[in-house]
Amino acid sequence: MPTQKSTRRLGFLALAATMAATRFGHCGSAWAPPDASWAVFFVAGFYLASEWRWALPALLIEAVAIDFAAIHYYGVSDYCVTAAYWFIVPAYSLLWLGGAWLNRRYQRAPADLRRPAVSVALSVSACFLLTEGSFYWLGDRIVHASIAGWWSNFLSWYGYFMLVTGAYVGLTALGHIAVTRRMPARAHLQTP
Predict the structure, then answer these.
(1) CA separation for the pair 136, 131 (Å, rounded)
(2) pLDDT by residue (tens digit) across 33-90?
(3) For the chain, how long is the longest CA-to-CA vector?
């Protein structure tokens, strides 16, 4: 039977592998799923924040390393790499904190779906405001920046990031429910 430490280690490796496999393109393609990075930080905060605080900086370093490799070795555009790029550190940390907050307050009851939904929505919204706002206003990519232009850009992308992150977190939640529901049954079968 796996220990809690080995389960966390496998979970961390699975999250890191998921980010490595999906981070090469925000929107995905016919051959690759959309970027799961935001969900990875939220889920990692949920499962790892209480004991593995080092996992946040490790995942941040991984995200930057993947971006560097994608741009320098795989021909991915560097359009999003501006002075605002470093706002991913506090933005992704907000996702992590949202997951950690949820872990401390979630009732682990099937009827308590409101807390996870609110936590994901608030975390993704805060992350999106920080990343999109810093890119729009500080990234030197928008020639004639305006409130109307920012709002239009915000509305164009917000739903997408909420949907993708929510879908990945939802799939993780379904996996969590499936595993935790089976665990007591297995423990019951193994007891003499």
Answers:
(1) 9
(2) 899 999 999 999 999 998 888 999 999 999 999 999 888 887 777 767 888 899 999 9
(3) 72
Give φ, ψ of 103 to 5 degrees: -60, -40
Please compute, for residue 122, the number of CA atoms within 13 A of its CA located in the half-sphere on the CB side: 14
**Nearest CA-CA partner of 120 in 48, 56, 175, 39:** 39
The answer to whether the beta carbons of residues 65 and 37 sit under 8 Å apart is no
Question: What pTM was estimated for this model as a whole?
Answer: 0.87
Instruction: Retrieve residue 49's tokens.
Output: 């924040």
* CA pair distance 129, 59, nearest whole angstrom: 21
Residue 34 CA: distances (Å) to CA of 27, 89, 151? 5, 20, 24
Give the closest residue to 41 by CA, choosing from 22, 24, 55.
55
Cα distance from N-terminal residue to C-terminal residue, the chain = 16
